[in-house]
Amino acid sequence: MGYLKTTPNKDGFFGNYGGAELPPPLVPHFKEITAAYERLSKSADFIAELRYIRKHFQGRPTPVSYLKNLSDLCGGARIYAKREDLNHTGAHKLNHCMAEGLLAKYMGKTKLMAETGAGQHGVALATAAAYFGLECEIHMGEIDIAKEAPNVTRMKLLGATVVPVGFGGRSLKEAVDSCFQSYVAQADTALFAIGSVVGPHPFPRMVRDFQHVIGVEAREQFLEMTGELPDMVAACVGGGSNAMGLFSGFIDDEDVALYGVEPLGTSSKLGDHAATITYGEDGDIHGFRTIVLKDAEGNPAPVHTVASGLDYPGVGPEHAHLHRTGRVTYTAAGDKEALDAFYKLSRHEGIIPALESAHAVAFAIREAKNNPGKSILLNLSGRGDKDIDYVTETYGFGE
Ligand SMILES: *Cc1c(COP(=O)(O)O)cnc(C)c1O
């Protein structure tokens, strides 16, 4: 049987990783979500409605583009990009947010809720809530609210309530804590929509399955364009949802090499990067077992990367598993390399990538010259409009 049908097991374990460590009041609610997902993922109505939404609202399928100018510039492998930047709202996150919204609707919930860091997940979820006529409650640290004003404005325009979180570091970790607290009190009527392949079971599996559409489309499109499968497939890894979406399309194709690209930030010193698999160790975070970056006390360590969507001291449990089995190779690219890729893709291809996605582009640029005659398919997980002010004010316009 194929990998996707057998992994994770029924308790949500990918090998040794995953599972659900929940506060007792939340146990029945996560059971309810798991049961609903298992039922609906086999329901013809649910699947048909999700297909309709993907085609007529999100604008799927997104294309695969051959990056000829970049390939010529690098010399070596042919580089292709799966264009999730062309998905509605400009990134892959809407793939799972629309599906989570649909799940909430079928479950009879009236509200979607989540935490957000830079605001990308908050905007995608607020979009889904508006579409389905659901309420939306987004928890966000006060520091992030000040830094990410345009996304706060977007969420409010879309009708979401943004709850400012003012305790502790006033950032993503506190926003998660705050949202969990608020959710406990309203779990009968609300769905906590986790924003990546992280969190307690069933989210790592469910979000992967909702993102699987990326890999299914890309495999078919690549075959149609070239008559063969790509030699190498690459994606950036924060929590790991865009990567699992693309990888899952090729996971049973043993000749296709898969690469996850983590953010190396400014150096390999703890605190300067968010390269969890590269430098972390086994541990628990936010209710599941995975690989974690820990400080001297064993708590989740502070992290840094120029791409705020990648700064998480954990990683989805499936990535920890695929690292241990060796099916996926994990590597890292630093801020400088990602910025260089950001400028190059903009200048030579007319595509301004999200800084997160620029890490996958950086990998392709680095590897192209070592792999003449081969092909590299990367996931362009999102567009870079959100990053242009920060990049040009901090680093200028590139060479
Ligand atoms: C949030 C985000 C990411 C990181 O999330 P994953 O779950 O690792 O995919 C990557 N790219 C973009 C554009 C994002 O918004």
- What's the architecture of the largest domain, going by CATH? 3-Layer(aba) Sandwich
- Cα-based radius of gyration, to the nearest Å: 20 Å
**Major pleated sheet:** 6 strands, mixed
Helix content: 40-55%
Highest-level CATH class of the largest domain: Alpha Beta
- Count of discrete structural domains: 2
What is the overall pLDDT average?
97
Low-confidence stretches: none
End-to-end distance = 50 Å
Assess the beta-strand content as a share of residues. Answer: 15-25%
Hetero groups: pyridoxal-5'-phosphate
Would you kindly provide a written description of the structure presented here, covering whatever features stand out?
The structure is a single chain. This protein is of the alpha/beta class. It folds into 2 domains: 23-55 and 93-203, Rossmann fold, CATH 3.40.50; 60-91 and 211-395, Rossmann fold, CATH 3.40.50.1100. The chain has helices at residues 3-6, 27-40, 44-58, 68-74, 93-106, 120-132, 142-147, 149-157, 172-186, 203-226, 241-247, 276-279, 317-325, 335-349, 355-368, 388-395, and strands at 13-14, 17-18, 64-66, 78-83, 111-115, 135-141, 161-165, 190-192, 232-236, 257-265, 281-285, 288-292, 328-334, 375-380. Helix 5 (93-106) runs parallel beside helix 6, helix 6 (120-132) runs parallel beside helix 8 (149-157) and helix 14 packs across helix 15 (355-368). It is globular. The relative contact order is 0.16. Bound molecules: pyridoxal-5'-phosphate. Pyridoxal-5'-phosphate (PLP) is lined by residues 91, 93, 120, 196, 236-243, 309-310, 354, 356-357, 381-382.
